[in-house]
From TrEMBL:
Residues 372-492 are annotated as: Domain IV, binds dsDNA. This is Chromosomal replication initiator protein DnaA. It is found in: Cytoplasm. Residues 1-92 are annotated as: Domain I, interacts with DnaA modulators. Domain I is involved in oligomerization and binding regulators, domain II is flexibile and of varying length in different bacteria, domain III forms the AAA+ region, while domain IV binds dsDNA. HAMAP family: DnaA_bact. SUPFAM superfamilies: P-loop containing nucleoside triphosphate hydrolases, TrpR-like. The lineage of its organism: Bacteria, Pseudomonadati, Bacteroidota, Cytophagia, Cytophagales. It comes from Hymenobacter persicinus. Residues 188-318 form the AAA+ ATPase domain.
Length: 492
């Protein structure tokens, strides 16, 4: 009967989904029109229920008539390999209540067991198919997943609360972070969402949370992962048929720190997976910490149901540090790295570099490098010299803007269109001309020019500059256009 059901299912869904979600199922029993199938985990069951309930129903009705029912047996390891069936009826199972955290813990532990058991079995089976080999090589090391202590947190120990300078710019975020670090999963700050611009200390703060928890409760499984890495791991697991292992791994985490969630924008499948993991962890009282480069309301391309989850906890922002905080950050950094800089230079730096903390640190590092290279003490003159290029860059940016505006106006197109993805002839020409002038009149690198034209790469810029040069040589009218435009930039 199950084989016939599978045929119906296979005809209705994709090959990959079929292999991932139906091949691992084991038919257990058929009695009084009730078919019992065994699935490897709670998560697996819920995924089936959420995504395949209709096709499952269809196949069961086709095989057993409308009296037919399907029950799941979810593998829960009892320590002796025995499995405890959990009965669920298809017509009523949809949106079944989440299991209690305790049940869930068991289910999670069980799924790790089954995943690793499967891997071990796969390893024993010879010859190993390339597919299986990929599963074994999967980055989550499911076979170790049973013992959480093996698991790496991916934390960088240099980030702590002690060296995270407090200021008005980060007071709320920092204290919420400390509350979470002291009582993960039990405050109302779950999830904790930290947002703020680049270089303002998001990664530092959430790493500090992780490090603090790890230091105070070493048996907790803390995991730091960037949303980008999460996505890549997920894609890899799809590719190697190890989605189950992927999910199982994440369900073991006690404190999940997901950095830069904006990266999930538009990646629907990954979001879906994260949504499930989120629900499970949250339900089980595990702590979730996230960062984003913008407030949740501006996270376009993220599903509403995921965004609405973020509101369950606390959202706190990071602002640019004020002068006093910048002073304190520099002084702290000097102390930490054993750097000696005269007070008036510190003050000058704190005054001049007001963009973000990373930039501030960058200047500091380059000063130290120069000073040791030239065997010269760091002084005001050197600092001014070091900052010249930053200030020039700011000016160059104004120029780039001006060039884009002027060229766009000349060709009667909106500036935005010039940065957009279109290949329309007039737009392409305008874009190439603007890039040409950007190269000629600013100190921007090719990479930076490309970046400022809607994120294109440096080879596109090279190509544009070449095309324009060629046209100047071959086309008199075009040459006139360029000359006219060049006048507008003369003296700039
Ligand atoms: P983001 O993740 O927001 O882009 P990071 O956390 O990587 O920023 O911070 C950039 C650099 O600035 C890091 O080296 C970090 O240690 C430092 N930094 C940011 N904020 C602070 C702060 N309040 N105190 C000390 N160092 C900070
Ligand atoms: Mg970061």
């Amino acid at each position: 009967v199950w084989a016939n059901c599978l045929r119906v299912i296979k005809a209705n869904i994709g090959e990959q989904s079929y292999r991932t979600w139906f091949e691992p199922i084991i038919p257990v029993q058929l009695h009084n029109n009730v078919l019992i199938i065994q699935v490897p985990s709670q998560f697996f069951y819920e995924w089936l229920e959420e995504h395949y309930v209709d096709v499952l129903k269809k196949s069961i009705y086709q095989e057993l008539g409308h009296e037919g029912r399907l029950e799941y047996s979810i593998v829960v390891d009892q320590g002796n390999g025995a499995s405890k069936p959990r009965t669920v009826n298809i017509p009523t199972a949809r949106k079944a209540a989440y299991p209690t955290p305790l049940q869930q813990d068991n289910a999670m532990a069980a799924s790790a067991m089954t995943a690793s058991a499967r891997n071990v079995a796969a390893a024993a089976a010879a010859p190993v198919s390339p597919d299986k080999a990929a599963t074994l090589r999967n980055p989550f090391e499911a076979s170790k997943a049973i013992d959480r202590n093996y698991l790496k947190s991916q934390l960088n120990h240099t980030y702590s609360f002690e060296n995270y300078i407090e200021g008005d710019c980060n007071r709320l975020a920092r204290s919420a972070g400390m509350a979470v670090a002291n009582k993960p999963g039990t405050t109302s700050f779950n999830p904790l969402m930290i947002y703020g611009g680049v270089g303002l200390g998001k990664t530092h703060l959430v790493q500090a949370i992780g490090n603090h928890i790890k230091a105070t409760t070493p048996d907790k499984f803390v995991l730091y992962v960037s949303a980008e890495k999460f996505t890549n791991q997920f894609i890899e697991s799809l590719r190697s048929n190890a989605v189950q292992d992927f999910a199982n791994f994440y369900l073991l985490v006690d404190i999940l720190i997901l950095d830069d969630v904006q990266f999930l924008s538009g990646k629907d499948k990954t979001q879906e997976m994260f949504f499930h993991i989120f629900n499970h962890l949250h339900q089980a009282g595990r702590q979730i910490v996230m960062t984003s480069d913008r407030p949740p309301r501006d996270l376009n391309g993220l599903e509403d149901r995921l965004l609405s989850r973020f509101k369950w906890g606390l959202t706190a922002d990071l602002q640019s540090p004020d002068f006093e905080t910048r002073m304190a950050i520099i002084q702290n950094k000097m102390q930490q790295d054993g750097i000696d800089i005269p007070p008036q230079v510190v003050e000058y730096l704190a005054h001049s570099v007001n963009t973000n903390v990373r930039e501030l640190e960058g200047v500091l590092i380059s000063l130290v490098a120069q000073s040791s290279l030239n065997r010269r003490e760091i002084d005001l003159e050197m600092a001014k010299q070091a900052l010249r290029h930053i200030i020039e860059e700011v000016e160059a940016e104004v120029n780039l803007d001006f060039i884009q505006k002027t060229v766009a106006e000349y060709f009667s197109i909106p500036v935005d269109l010039m940065k957009a993805k279109t290949r329309k002839k007039e737009v392409v020409t305008a874009r190439q001309v603007a890039m040409y002038f950007a190269k000629e009149h600013t100190s921007h690198s090719l990479k930076s020019i490309g970046h400022n034209f809607g994120g294109r790469d440096h080879s596109t810029v090279i190509h544009s500059v070449q095309t324009v040069s060629d046209l100047i040589d071959s086309d008199k009218v075009f040459k006139g256009t360029i000359q006219e435009l060049r006048k507008k930039f003369a003296g700039k």
